[in-house]
User: Fold Alpha-L-fucosidase 2 from Vanrija pseudolonga.
Amino acid sequence: MPAPTPLPALTYDRPASLWVEALPLGNGSLGAMVYGDPWDERIALNESTLWSGSPLNESNAAAAIPASVAQPALLDARVAVLDRRYDDATKAVEKVQGPYSQAFLPLGTLRLRTRVAGEKDKGTATGYTRALDLDTATHVSRYELDGRRVRWTSFASHPDNALVVRLESEVPLDIDASFDSELKGVELDGASPPGRLVIGLRAPSDCPPPHEPTESVKWSEAPGEAMRAAAVLGWTHDGEVGAAGGLSARGVTRLTLVLAAQTTFVDALTPPGVDAAPAAATALARVDAALADVEATAARHLADYTALYARSALSLPGAPLHATLYNYGRYLLIAGSRTGAAMNLQGLWNKTARPVWSSNYTININTQMNYWAAEAVGLGELAEPLFGLIDALATKGKTTAQRLYGTRGWVAHHNTDVWAYSSPVGMGHSSCQWAWWPFAGPWLCLALVERVRFGNREFAARAWGPVRDAMAFVLDWVFEHDGVLITAPSTSPENTFTVGDDATRHAVTRSATMDISLATELGRALLEIAEAAGTASDPIVAETRAFVARLPRISPGSDGLLPEWAENHAQAEAPHRHMSHLVGVYPGNTIRDADQLAAAGRGLDEREDDLATGWALAWKVSLRARLRDVQKIDHTLSLITRDAAMPEHDDEVYEGSAFTTRGGLYPNLFSTHPPFQIDGNLGYVAGVAECLLQSQWGVISLLPALPTAWNGGRVSGLIARPGVRVGLEWEGRRLVEARLEAVGEAGRGRHVLELGGVRREVELGKGVLVLRAKDFEEACSGW
Assistant:
């Protein structure tokens, strides 16, 4: 299928036949993938809180790895690492592996089977188009039947928390609606009301990832072990009810169908309810309310969505696809993260009952990347679901930190889920390179700190608890060895090394660079927000200040590169998709000295890989932007926007197949790992913002890393720290105009601006400051 026309609408001339051709709708809770078939429409559905399992999974982990096993294993691993007995260290760490986190599940599929009224066979649709309008968050498919027009319109409303599908047809149609699900059904008392279809569902109690083929999906009906859900369909139309009753209509020219869903999820700490009836009643009430005045429902949707989407826009006449991807990524952020659960590996859209990597929260990079762009494009409040997940992890992770490691504070590892699972995964037989990594807490907390840095000073009080307790874990985890603060055991996410001529791969060593970088980032962040949070007298502030002063500097090795590990081991897999050792370059800001940045650039050159995953390419754009390496950004953008390898069918098994390499774009512009992962789309938005505007280290840099293809363009609504809204227009790679406005009190006052290496000071009050290139012709006195 050809790529869409790169306009405000993604437009196609045929229906989708594969999920990666379908177009996404979402309201943060309800996700839909619309295929647009005139005769057999499929809309694949998800609900953000519909996951397998329950909070009891953490109890299973506690039973599998009690303190009596975990804490001696930790000491054994530490001694083995310091003795450079890496095999023994690995065996010890494997004892600290528990069950897997749970899976994000599909709700089901809405089917709309359509025929020309009175006809048995399909007709011939001509002039077909389907489009996702990014300006209105609306899917529209149009076609003609014997010269008579048919139009289907769909949107997912956040105010009404429902999916709305509308038909306007010049030819009468017979339509049958149904709902299919791979979840187990639950009987509900009473029949569905007229014009309504009410379905009760039950999720599995355990859904292991498919890379554990000997483990099966489990279905328990015991209280609190699995959630229930309900989906409700309702419609109104101008036809007649079909002979079969239910949602069957004949001779329809006007129809509105509304679908709502509700689960029995309460929160990450509370077992889900076992009665689907209240969920069904809630969903039914939503359907009835949305149908009561459909025009008002549509108006509420449009007003709600445009208030967010209109905050920023990008136009690139010389690279329209790049601009479309930026605007599409913002659309996906709005559609995927409002209320409900945070966006997972696939955001809000997953078609598979046992998805690859459980479509969970992979918190050694991917979950964090989902939200990197939120503050920079003026959508910071959309990270609230992530903050809720962090709060839950900070609560559950305290018990885990004490049980496994005997430390203060809280810990989280490589994976988590809607239940805030905080223990290591792997079941005692998985590679420590991904199954064990205890520094997710510090990295997640940096998202809280960014909310403060971008101007929301009041948020510091909210951020303080998780940040403080994550720091407490770090303070207890890091220890002194030979006069240097180190971490041991330590892994660098998903990476391995070799020692000498031995080809054996190891993952467990001491002081992965990422550990030290995150300890530094979090420590400095805590000191930064303590005053705003009103907690400067907390004893941990003085403890952290002394600790940060003693942390070792990340220095280039003898090879001129920043090392992945303190021992500067040889990488076993090169080039590697993770750039964990560069977290202090981006999204962090503690690696800033000239020798460090030069070494980081050389290291990125070593990891140039045209077969890199979509999310890795997105990360490289931001890293290269920080390094001002425009030439390499150009190449990376070409890799991001190439066509992805296509699956042959919707049930293609990716893991272990030919599709496990090479990122790119599917026909619906979803970024691929493969398979689809939304972090590539959302990380790309962050990279674009970083190319156009940077604001680390107290300087606001305009057009710091403009790609070659972006010769001219215009962007609005970017946000700089500490709360400055910026609009830019440029032509011939030269600034035409910059518009700056303080977002709130934090953005008012004096700021240092930079353009092309020239700096000047400006004062922002309540108005808009307009600057042009001539305003930067001379550096300010004193710079």
